[in-house]
Amino acid sequence: MNRIISTLSRHLGETVFSILPAIPYARKEKDGCPGVAVSAKQLSAAARADGPIAFHDATFEIPCGCRTALIGPNGSGKSTLLRVLAGLTPIRSGEVRIGGEPPRLGRSRIAYLAQRPHLAESFPLKLRRLVQMGTYAHHGWFEECQHGDEAVDRALSRLGLTDLADRPVYTLSGGQLQRGLIARAVVQGAEILLLDEPYAALDQPSREIIDRFLFDQGHAFTVVMATHDPADLGRFDRVLEMRDGVIATRHACSGHDHRHA
Amino acid sequence: MRAPATTTAMLDLLLQPLAEPFFVRALIAVALSGATCACLGAYVVLRRMAFVSTALTHSILPGVVGALLLGFSPYLGALVAALLTAAGAAWLASRKGTSEDSAVGVMLSVMFAAGIALMQQANSWRDFAGLLFGSVVSVGGDDLLVIGATTAIVLFGLRALHKELELASFDEEYASLLGARPALMRVVLLVLVALGSVACVRLVGALLTTALFVIPAATGVLLGRTVPQVMGWGTVCALLGGVGGLYLSYYAPAVPSGAGIVLCCALPYLAARIFAPRR
């Protein structure tokens, strides 16, 4: 029965997509990081359009390849800043550029992971399909993503998920799901990772796998991570502290070459 | 020699209605609209849109009655009314203080009340019982054409936008981040649901059409582990229920076809609910 369904679906798809033209979701981006991954001048923003300002007059820079920690108490605007950079929340005033452009939706080079992703409950979806969604960034409307399986397999294995690939998403633990979402960002080919407290509620094994991925390997990622864990900070190249609506760079280095081990 | 005699009798029971052209038309109609509703229903169920789909299907009543009064195609009237309901609910919910749930509730009751008021104006109740509860005999050649076209449009749309609809239903924020327009996908889905409900109103009736969106897909969710599998199992359930319901209402004319179809759809759901492995 399941084979009949997938055969039918494939044939129907071939017919449908031979009629319709493929249209990309968003305009293409320039390749490579332009030196400065994120820069902000006098930036202010609010979590909600009608809400109070979360932070104001923020001026900072994050070089390409720099692992940056975003620290500060609850409600200090860390999540709002990450959502602004992701293009999900509009700014109130000032100027901000990420990857050489003002933030907008539809950018494959930027991945954002919410603190608590709102995923539909008990949705019939296998982990492999979730990770495959990352490839959509390079396709668009009226196109099937049949290729890219290799990239999906590689990302699954790098995050220790190979054995879980055919498991429905709703049977995964929080840590496994979080790793799946990071694998999706990898498949997407993101160069700038915006992570909102990715370690919250993770068990040690999941945490170590994600850590190894973000810090130990020689990837040219730029990471901006909101975190509450003071023990973590030594591993970051740069620490931005948000307090009372103001952002201060507490600890900075030039990025790539001087990265702390 | 007893067993073959029983078999022949059973076969006769199954074959005899097939000699009637209206029954064959109804069978084709129920197969097409059942598949349409089951596939669309997968999203209706997974996105928890059952209430919206109820509102859309109920608003067919004022649409059809209004069209009869004004003298244009009842299908067009039904479609316009369903789209009006969706747009009205979206507009009401766009202001703070009205949740989408209550906005849909308001539109549902207002449209249905308008339908009842219009029915009184019409003075002739000829097709209204059929409109509310469905009727096997009412499917004509024109209806088949409309149902076939709707089925083709809906299945084409679902297949063409499969990955976007799946993504937007599962992880709306990621869909926005990729630029895959989840709000637009919601509108597309509502339009397809409006089209789908128009396709089955003849057989199932305005009051029960929503069941065809919900019951087969709910069965599919119990049995399928991917969205296409949910659609596939839902279609199987809708076909079993649809064909069973038509036979039921053929041999028991007191049972309107809509009621028969819905009751027969509930059986595979019940079986899946009891026997499907726990997720």
Helix content of chain B: over 70%
Question: CATH superfamily assignment of chain B?
Answer: ABC transporter involved in vitamin B12 uptake, BtuC
Q: Please tell me the overall pLDDT of chain B.
A: 89
Please state the structural category of chain B: mainly alpha
The CATH superfamily of chain A appears as P-loop containing nucleotide triphosphate hydrolases
Number of strands of chain A: 11
Task: Report the end-to-end length of chain A measured between terminal Cα atoms.
Answer: 53 Å
Provide the number of structural domains of chain A: 1
**CATH-defined architecture of chain A:** 3-Layer(aba) Sandwich
Widest sheet, order of strands of chain A: 6-8-9-4-10-11
Inertia-based shape of chain A: globular
**Rounded Rg of chain B:** 19 Å
Approximately how much beta-strand content do the residues of chain B carry?
under 5%
CATH class of chain A: Alpha Beta
User: What count of domains describes the coordinates of chain B?
Assistant: 1
* CATH level 1 name of chain B: Mainly Alpha
Mean pLDDT of chain A: 86
How would you summarize the topology of this molecule?
The complex is a heterodimer of chains A (261) and B (279).
Chain A: H1 2-19, E1 23-24, E2 36-46, E3 53-63, E4 67-71, H2 78-86, E5 91-98, E6 110-113, H3 127-132, E7 140-141, H4 149-158, H5 174-187, E8 192-196, H6 204-216, E9 222-226, E10 238-243, E11 246-251
Parallel strand pairs in A: 4-9, 4-10, 6-8, 8-9
Antiparallel strand pairs in A: 1-7, 2-3, 2-5, 10-11
Chain B: H1 2-15, H2 21-46, H3 50-58, H4 60-70, H5 74-93, H6 100-122, H7 128-133, H8 141-160, H9 162-170, H10 172-178, H11 182-204, H12 209-223, H13 227-251, H14 257-275
Helix pairs in contact in B: 2-8, 2-11, 2-12, 2-13, 3-5, 3-6, 3-11, 3-12, 4-5, 4-6, 5-6, 5-11, 8-11, 9-10, 9-11, 12-13, 12-14, 13-14
